[in-house]
Amino acid sequence: MLHMKRWLIVTLIMALFIPQAMTADAKASGKSTSAASTSGKTVYLTFDDGPTAHTMDLLDILDKYNAHATFFMLGPHMERYPAATKRIVKEGNGLGLHGVTHVASKFYHSPYSAYNEMVGANNSLYKVTGQRTSLVRPPYGSKPYLKQNFRDVLLPVGGFHLWDWNVDSLDWKYKKDHQKVYNSIMRQIHSVEKRGQTPVVLMHDQPATLKVLPLVLKELQAEGYTFKVLNKQLKPLNFWNDER
Asked: Which of 68, 77, 98, 204 is catalytic?
């Protein structure tokens, strides 16, 4: 009988303290039982055409939501807004090149004109930040202009990695209809995810995007997405399926 009482006491103590200990271990290890942190979903946010006079505001929004993005920047803009360019680097965002002119007739004049623009943009990045990158996104995306002969110079010769996107925010088209942009982004992200792909979202460094970005970040965060940056170790996503 005495042994039975002792067994009951031990059982009660274990029932009281073990769940608390398990919760403490989970907190100590940095693990959460919430769906938001265990879902393992990733999204790559990207911004073209910067830096601009609005980049600091964009970075403030990213910082508020503890999010990072990859910036495909233009050479002259980096030199015009050096403080914003340096902050992009300092806060751990991804670095990409978008060329120099953003004029199709100039950028795509020849394979070497495209190559020279990316080299020029990389030189501007180095001049401002001391950093270089191999990630490139040509103006207006790689199709239809960046054909095989262009890629054969830009990728193996230049050592660049070509990135497009699989989610077009349409923020360049609907600059005043923020709800339409938001709906487009979320619909496409969910569609891409259902196909088993990781969303790479095209947005632009412009005032209109600042209106919709907090809504997108808040919802994606609530759905358990982690905001990561592109890097040269990842397999490039582009319209030509060129993995070089």
From this structure: 204
Domain boundaries, the chain: 44-228
Is the CA virtual torsion 85, 91, 96, 98 positive or negative?
negative
Q: Tell me how far CA of residue 63 lies from CA of 60, 92, 94, in angstroms.
A: 5, 11, 14
In the three-class reduction of DSSP (H, G, I as helix; E, B as strand; rest coil), residue 62 is classed as helix
Alpha carbon distance 134, 126 (integer Å): 12
The pLDDT of residue 39 is: 55
CA nearest 165: which of 129, 125, 138? 138
pLDDT along the chain (244 residues), means of 10: 42 37 32 39 98 98 98 98 98 98 97 98 98 98 97 96 98 93 97 96 96 97 97 97 96
* Confidence at residue 17, expressed as pLDDT on a 0 to 100 scale: 36
- Full DSSP string of 174-231: -SS-HHHHHHHHHHHHHHHHHTT---EEEEESSHHHHHHHHHHHHHHHHTTEEEE---
Q: What confidence score (pLDDT) does residue 234 get?
A: 97
Using the structure block, give the residue that is written with the tokens 């394979």.
Answer: 111
Active site residue 171: no
The conformation of residue 169, written as its DSSP 8-state character, comes to -
48 belongs to the catalytic site = yes
What is the number of other CB atoms lying within 10 angstroms of the CB of residue 130? 9
The answer as to CATH 3.20.20.370 being correct for domain 44-228 is yes
Among 25, 48, 164, 190, the one annotated catalytic: 48
